[in-house]
Request: fold
Amino acid sequence: MRERTIRSTVIGIALSMMVVLFPCFAQAKQPEPSCQCVEGEEPLSMNYGEHTIDCQIADPTDTDKFSFYGVVGDEIRVIVSRTSGNLYPRLEIWDPDDQKIVDEWDPFDVAVDATLVKTGAYLIAVSDNPLDYTGEYNLQLEKIPPVFAPPGIPYDSPESDEIDLDTDMDFFVFEGANGANIRLVVSRASGNLYPRLEVWDPDGQKIVDEWDPFDVSVEETLAKTGTYVMAVSDQPLDYTGAYEAEIHCLTGPCPQPPVQPDVSGCIRERGQPLVGKRVKLIPRRGDAMRTKTDQYGKYEFFDIPSGRFTVKFRHSKQ
Reply:
């Protein structure tokens, strides 16, 4: 076992003073799992949230097959994006009873939204529509909302992330109240990203779908109270880049700003967050306080008396 000790001093008597020991400059990136295409091992099984790598139509008459398990009511998005060659991607999907439910093609990219009406194994096929061309492509399978718990985006606090694959979708959640008038902004920070902003209400109804070559700014009066889902992606499905997303409440029942911790920090090892680590704060006077790091390696302590204190955590290398 190895004990690491961090020491700091709070100066003054104001309890609202925040001292950051190891600053959390950015949250960990959202999960972007992938699966590798292997010729002859079809259909390739995929899960929601995955994208393919090393997929290609090597012969004009070739058809690549994939499978996934879906449940009645799942809202899905399936994207095929050409990355090289002259491929005119064609996307077909069959339900568990072998009924074709999707058959779409495009000279560059295909994106299809669908609501599943059956539970079971679905089949996806990707091919060239005129059967004349070849090329490489990305296939992305998404569920809306996603299967993982998206990070929350607080009001008046910009979040930065990156679309690093042309078919990528980044999800966030935020809390909204009936009657609140809010402004949502997504601005391109680097790359050639054409930011697309989508928002779904607590009942899963899409209420925003806007894009712009540079920045998107939308004002919306919320009609429901609850958790909203927000997605950022590239509109033409061709570009990547970094972006900054933020939400502001303008009028109506706006949420109160969150209480800021007196002491906070992040614990990382080789750039990776240490999750679920016990952290102890020992003041010069009074009882010790304890907490655990979250999924980003962050810890927080509130209501710390002014004075000298020590923060300790234990971590053993495997």
About this structure: The longest strand covers residues 241-251. The mean pLDDT is 86. The chain has no helices and 28 strands.
